[in-house]
Write a structure and sequence with these properties.
The protein has 209 residues and is α/β, with parallel strands linked by helices. It is 44% helix and 21% strand.
């Protein structure tokens, strides 16, 4: 079972995905983050890397992501790349992702890639107001990614906002479940956890062929 959790930058999708992992159990659920599959820009000068459009589908190595999801669905482990957001390059290290009954893949552009969309058994969209998403991104990029206030604002106007309206927001139509930001988020997460547990029980009850 592969669950896709999509939403704009700062929508809270990663937090929701991790809550599901914790609630259902790490022994049964594995999390794959689309951010790990950004293309390696090591061959570009650093100043050019900072100007790259990281919110367009072409910024993602979708071939690798699709291959890894298919391998996990087949019960095979994958070597997930690790991405350095300060230098916009892939680390020399990798993370081994073992196959588990439930795979959660989350990212801003997973619904914009038809091959990923076709692999998803459940599609969840986290719908959060633009101002809240921007504030969260601002705090995260300054605290974790070595950015300045001006650089975050520049990137937001230059690529984040226009790409959101071109690719992310329209992809909401593919969602089976839409989680609105607000006080009922916890209820929505518990509903998702219940659906996952129910699916796991169904899989166990199916007799071997």
């Amino acid at each position: 079972m592969i669950i896709g959790i999509c939403g704009g930058t700062g929508s809270g999708k990663t937090t929701i995905a991790r809550k599901i992992v914790e609630a259902v159990g790490r022994e049964r659920v594995v999390l794959v983050e689309q951010d790990s599959y950004y293309r390696n820009l090591a061959d570009m000068p650093l100043d050019e890397r900072h100007q790259a459009n990281f919110d367009h589908p072409d910024s993602i190595d979708s071939d690798m992501l699709v291959n890894h999801l298919m391998r996990l669905k087949q019960g095979l482990k994958v070597e997930m790349p690790l991405y350095d957001f300060k230098t916009h390059t892939r680390s020399d290290q990798i993370e081994i992702i073992p196959p588990k009954p439930v795979v959660i893949v989350e990212g801003i552009l997973i619904f914009a890639e038809p091959r990923v969309l076709d692999l998803l058994d459940m599609r969840v969209y986290v719908d959060t107001p633009d101002d809240i998403r921007f504030i969260r991104r601002l705090r995260r990029d300054i605290a974790e990614r070595g950015r300045t206030v001006d650089s975050v604002i520049d990137q937001y106007y230059r690529t984040v906002r226009p790409m959101h309206f071109e690719f992310v927001e329209p992809s909401k139509r593919h969602a089976d479940i839409i989680i609105p930001e607000g006080s009922n988020t916890g209820i929505s997460v518990e509903l998702l956890c219940s659906l996952v547990r129910e699916k796991l029980l169904e899989e166990r009850s199916i007799p071997a062929q």
